[in-house]
Specification:
alpha/beta; two-stranded antiparallel ribbon; Rossmann fold; 274 residues; 9 helices; seven-stranded parallel sheet; globular
Length: 274
Protein backbone atom coordinates (compact mmCIF):
# COMPACT_ATOMS: atom_id res chain seq x y z
CA UNK A 1 0.00 0.00 0.00
CA UNK A 2 1.26 3.47 -0.88
CA UNK A 3 2.10 5.56 2.17
CA UNK A 4 0.47 9.01 2.42
CA UNK A 5 2.78 12.02 2.11
CA UNK A 6 3.04 14.91 4.57
CA UNK A 7 4.80 18.20 3.83
CA UNK A 8 5.81 19.87 7.11
CA UNK A 9 7.31 23.37 7.02
CA UNK A 10 9.56 24.71 9.75
CA UNK A 11 10.68 21.19 10.62
CA UNK A 12 14.32 21.72 11.63
CA UNK A 13 13.37 21.94 15.31
CA UNK A 14 10.49 22.44 17.73
CA UNK A 15 6.89 21.63 16.86
CA UNK A 16 7.61 21.01 13.19
CA UNK A 17 10.33 18.47 13.93
CA UNK A 18 8.15 16.64 16.45
CA UNK A 19 5.23 16.55 14.03
CA UNK A 20 7.37 15.19 11.20
CA UNK A 21 8.65 12.35 13.41
CA UNK A 22 5.19 11.58 14.80
CA UNK A 23 3.60 11.48 11.35
CA UNK A 24 6.35 9.16 10.12
CA UNK A 25 5.57 6.82 12.98
CA UNK A 26 1.89 6.92 11.99
CA UNK A 27 2.60 5.75 8.44
CA UNK A 28 3.49 8.90 6.50
CA UNK A 29 6.43 9.62 4.27
CA UNK A 30 7.47 13.15 5.18
CA UNK A 31 8.91 16.08 3.26
CA UNK A 32 10.41 18.66 5.58
CA UNK A 33 11.41 22.25 4.94
CA UNK A 34 13.31 24.97 6.79
CA UNK A 35 16.20 27.35 6.27
CA UNK A 36 18.66 25.33 8.34
CA UNK A 37 19.91 22.38 6.31
CA UNK A 38 22.86 21.15 8.39
CA UNK A 39 23.52 21.08 12.11
CA UNK A 40 25.35 24.19 13.26
CA UNK A 41 23.97 26.47 10.53
CA UNK A 42 20.92 27.71 12.49
CA UNK A 43 21.10 31.14 14.05
CA UNK A 44 18.62 32.96 16.27
CA UNK A 45 17.56 36.34 14.90
CA UNK A 46 18.06 39.09 17.46
CA UNK A 47 15.59 41.88 18.14
CA UNK A 48 17.72 44.31 16.14
CA UNK A 49 17.63 42.03 13.11
CA UNK A 50 21.16 40.64 13.36
CA UNK A 51 22.04 36.98 13.33
CA UNK A 52 22.47 35.84 16.91
CA UNK A 53 23.67 32.71 18.69
CA UNK A 54 23.69 29.27 17.17
CA UNK A 55 20.58 27.12 17.41
CA UNK A 56 20.46 23.35 17.54
CA UNK A 57 18.38 21.49 14.96
CA UNK A 58 18.50 21.04 11.19
CA UNK A 59 16.77 19.34 8.29
CA UNK A 60 19.42 16.64 8.20
CA UNK A 61 18.83 15.77 11.85
CA UNK A 62 15.05 15.71 11.45
CA UNK A 63 15.34 13.59 8.29
CA UNK A 64 17.36 10.99 10.20
CA UNK A 65 14.70 10.88 12.92
CA UNK A 66 11.88 10.59 10.37
CA UNK A 67 13.56 7.59 8.76
CA UNK A 68 14.27 6.03 12.15
CA UNK A 69 10.51 6.32 12.84
CA UNK A 70 9.76 4.36 9.67
CA UNK A 71 9.08 7.07 7.11
CA UNK A 72 10.87 8.10 3.97
CA UNK A 73 12.25 11.63 4.36
CA UNK A 74 12.84 14.41 1.85
CA UNK A 75 14.64 17.55 3.04
CA UNK A 76 13.69 20.65 1.04
CA UNK A 77 15.35 23.99 1.90
CA UNK A 78 12.82 26.83 1.97
CA UNK A 79 12.70 30.40 3.26
CA UNK A 80 9.40 32.13 4.04
CA UNK A 81 10.87 35.44 2.88
CA UNK A 82 12.02 33.99 -0.44
CA UNK A 83 8.76 33.84 -2.41
CA UNK A 84 10.23 31.80 -5.25
CA UNK A 85 11.44 29.09 -2.87
CA UNK A 86 7.89 28.25 -1.78
CA UNK A 87 6.32 26.76 -4.94
CA UNK A 88 9.73 25.35 -5.83
CA UNK A 89 9.75 23.41 -2.55
CA UNK A 90 6.24 22.05 -3.16
CA UNK A 91 7.21 21.07 -6.70
CA UNK A 92 10.16 19.07 -5.36
CA UNK A 93 7.81 17.17 -3.09
CA UNK A 94 5.42 16.44 -5.96
CA UNK A 95 8.32 15.35 -8.14
CA UNK A 96 9.69 13.00 -5.48
CA UNK A 97 6.48 11.53 -4.06
CA UNK A 98 3.86 12.31 -6.71
CA UNK A 99 1.40 13.77 -4.23
CA UNK A 100 0.93 15.70 -0.99
CA UNK A 101 -1.77 14.36 1.34
CA UNK A 102 -1.07 16.68 4.27
CA UNK A 103 0.31 20.21 4.19
CA UNK A 104 1.26 21.45 7.65
CA UNK A 105 2.05 25.17 7.50
CA UNK A 106 4.08 25.32 10.70
CA UNK A 107 7.02 27.61 9.78
CA UNK A 108 6.97 31.15 11.13
CA UNK A 109 9.09 34.28 10.88
CA UNK A 110 10.35 35.60 14.22
CA UNK A 111 12.19 38.76 13.27
CA UNK A 112 12.58 42.05 15.16
CA UNK A 113 8.89 43.05 14.94
CA UNK A 114 7.70 39.96 16.78
CA UNK A 115 8.33 41.51 20.18
CA UNK A 116 8.40 45.23 19.44
CA UNK A 117 5.77 47.87 20.09
CA UNK A 118 3.84 49.21 17.12
CA UNK A 119 5.44 52.67 16.97
CA UNK A 120 8.88 51.06 17.25
CA UNK A 121 8.26 48.66 14.35
CA UNK A 122 9.26 50.01 10.91
CA UNK A 123 6.93 49.57 7.97
CA UNK A 124 9.30 47.17 6.24
CA UNK A 125 9.37 44.88 9.29
CA UNK A 126 5.58 44.87 9.49
CA UNK A 127 5.56 43.90 5.82
CA UNK A 128 7.99 41.05 6.46
CA UNK A 129 5.79 39.69 9.23
CA UNK A 130 2.74 39.73 6.98
CA UNK A 131 4.62 38.33 3.99
CA UNK A 132 6.19 35.48 5.95
CA UNK A 133 3.31 34.55 8.24
CA UNK A 134 0.34 35.04 5.90
CA UNK A 135 1.32 35.42 2.25
CA UNK A 136 3.82 32.57 2.29
CA UNK A 137 1.19 30.16 3.61
CA UNK A 138 -1.29 31.37 0.99
CA UNK A 139 1.26 30.83 -1.77
CA UNK A 140 1.85 27.25 -0.62
CA UNK A 141 -1.85 26.53 -0.27
CA UNK A 142 -2.59 27.96 -3.72
CA UNK A 143 0.09 25.68 -5.13
CA UNK A 144 -0.95 22.52 -3.27
CA UNK A 145 -4.75 22.78 -3.00
CA UNK A 146 -5.55 22.27 -6.72
CA UNK A 147 -3.58 18.99 -6.70
CA UNK A 148 -5.44 17.86 -3.57
CA UNK A 149 -8.76 18.61 -5.28
CA UNK A 150 -7.65 16.63 -8.32
CA UNK A 151 -6.62 13.62 -6.23
CA UNK A 152 -9.94 13.69 -4.38
CA UNK A 153 -8.81 14.82 -0.97
CA UNK A 154 -6.12 15.88 1.43
CA UNK A 155 -5.56 17.85 4.61
CA UNK A 156 -4.29 21.38 5.18
CA UNK A 157 -3.31 22.56 8.65
CA UNK A 158 -2.21 26.10 9.55
CA UNK A 159 -0.34 26.61 12.82
CA UNK A 160 -1.69 29.68 14.60
CA UNK A 161 -0.91 31.24 17.99
CA UNK A 162 -2.74 32.40 21.07
CA UNK A 163 -1.45 35.89 20.30
CA UNK A 164 -4.00 35.99 17.46
CA UNK A 165 -6.99 36.13 19.82
CA UNK A 166 -5.70 36.75 23.36
CA UNK A 167 -5.17 40.25 24.72
CA UNK A 168 -1.66 40.74 26.11
CA UNK A 169 -1.35 41.39 29.83
CA UNK A 170 1.54 43.80 29.27
CA UNK A 171 3.15 45.71 26.39
CA UNK A 172 5.67 44.09 24.08
CA UNK A 173 9.01 43.92 25.83
CA UNK A 174 7.36 43.61 29.24
CA UNK A 175 5.74 40.22 28.83
CA UNK A 176 3.46 40.98 25.88
CA UNK A 177 3.90 40.57 22.14
CA UNK A 178 4.11 42.75 19.07
CA UNK A 179 1.08 43.90 17.10
CA UNK A 180 2.67 42.88 13.80
CA UNK A 181 3.12 39.23 14.79
CA UNK A 182 -0.33 38.98 16.37
CA UNK A 183 -1.97 40.60 13.34
CA UNK A 184 -0.23 38.19 10.98
CA UNK A 185 -1.50 35.20 12.94
CA UNK A 186 -4.99 36.68 13.21
CA UNK A 187 -5.09 37.04 9.42
CA UNK A 188 -4.00 33.42 9.01
CA UNK A 189 -6.93 32.36 11.21
CA UNK A 190 -9.39 33.43 8.51
CA UNK A 191 -7.97 31.12 5.84
CA UNK A 192 -9.38 27.78 6.96
CA UNK A 193 -13.04 28.74 7.56
CA UNK A 194 -13.24 30.56 4.22
CA UNK A 195 -11.61 27.76 2.23
CA UNK A 196 -13.90 25.25 3.96
CA UNK A 197 -16.92 27.16 2.62
CA UNK A 198 -15.39 27.54 -0.85
CA UNK A 199 -14.64 23.80 -1.18
CA UNK A 200 -17.45 21.84 0.48
CA UNK A 201 -17.62 18.08 -0.03
CA UNK A 202 -14.26 18.16 -1.81
CA UNK A 203 -12.51 15.66 0.42
CA UNK A 204 -10.05 18.34 1.55
CA UNK A 205 -10.02 18.80 5.32
CA UNK A 206 -8.85 22.10 6.79
CA UNK A 207 -7.80 22.94 10.33
CA UNK A 208 -6.38 25.94 12.17
CA UNK A 209 -4.12 24.74 14.98
CA UNK A 210 -3.54 26.59 18.24
CA UNK A 211 -0.72 24.88 20.17
CA UNK A 212 -0.82 26.84 23.43
CA UNK A 213 2.42 27.47 25.26
CA UNK A 214 4.98 24.94 24.06
CA UNK A 215 8.36 24.46 25.66
CA UNK A 216 10.44 24.03 22.51
CA UNK A 217 14.20 23.64 22.39
CA UNK A 218 14.54 27.31 21.48
CA UNK A 219 12.27 28.40 24.34
CA UNK A 220 14.42 26.46 26.78
CA UNK A 221 17.63 27.88 25.34
CA UNK A 222 16.30 31.45 25.24
CA UNK A 223 15.11 31.34 28.85
CA UNK A 224 17.92 29.27 30.34
CA UNK A 225 15.23 27.01 31.79
CA UNK A 226 13.38 29.86 33.52
CA UNK A 227 10.10 29.13 31.70
CA UNK A 228 10.12 25.41 32.60
CA UNK A 229 8.10 26.24 35.72
CA UNK A 230 5.15 27.49 33.62
CA UNK A 231 4.41 23.93 32.58
CA UNK A 232 4.32 24.35 28.83
CA UNK A 233 3.50 21.34 26.70
CA UNK A 234 6.28 19.46 24.97
CA UNK A 235 6.46 19.58 21.17
CA UNK A 236 5.84 15.83 21.22
CA UNK A 237 2.46 16.24 22.93
CA UNK A 238 1.41 18.82 20.35
CA UNK A 239 2.62 16.47 17.62
CA UNK A 240 0.48 13.66 19.03
CA UNK A 241 -2.59 15.89 18.70
CA UNK A 242 -1.65 16.86 15.13
CA UNK A 243 -1.18 13.21 14.22
CA UNK A 244 -4.57 12.31 15.71
CA UNK A 245 -6.20 15.01 13.56
CA UNK A 246 -4.41 13.66 10.49
CA UNK A 247 -5.27 10.01 11.02
CA UNK A 248 -8.43 9.53 13.07
CA UNK A 249 -11.76 9.62 11.15
CA UNK A 250 -13.38 11.27 14.19
CA UNK A 251 -11.23 14.35 13.57
CA UNK A 252 -13.43 15.45 10.67
CA UNK A 253 -15.79 17.10 13.16
CA UNK A 254 -13.16 19.83 13.53
CA UNK A 255 -13.08 20.58 9.79
CA UNK A 256 -13.07 24.32 9.12
CA UNK A 257 -12.39 25.20 12.75
CA UNK A 258 -9.63 26.20 15.14
CA UNK A 259 -8.39 23.28 17.21
CA UNK A 260 -6.76 23.94 20.59
CA UNK A 261 -4.19 21.16 20.54
CA UNK A 262 -3.44 20.83 24.25
CA UNK A 263 -7.15 20.70 25.04
CA UNK A 264 -7.62 18.08 22.31
CA UNK A 265 -4.75 15.98 23.65
CA UNK A 266 -6.30 16.00 27.12
CA UNK A 267 -9.78 15.05 25.89
CA UNK A 268 -8.45 12.26 23.66
CA UNK A 269 -6.10 10.93 26.31
CA UNK A 270 -3.09 11.51 24.10
CA UNK A 271 0.48 11.55 25.33
CA UNK A 272 3.86 12.33 23.81
CA UNK A 273 4.32 8.61 23.27
CA UNK A 274 0.97 8.19 21.44
Amino acid sequence: MTRPVAFVTGASRGIGKACAISLAGAGYDVAISARTVREGEGRADTLDGRSGRALSGSLETTAEAVEAAGGRALAVPMDLLDRESLPAAADRVFAEFGRIDLLLNNAIYQGPGTLSRFLDTPDDELQRLLDANVMSQLVLIRHVLPRMLEQGGGTIMNMSSGTSFLDPWAPAGEGGWGLGYAASKAALNRVVPILAVEHPDSGVLLYTLEPGYVLTERAREDSGGVFDEFGGATPELVAAAVTWLATDPAATRFHGRMVHLQELAKKQGLSAAT
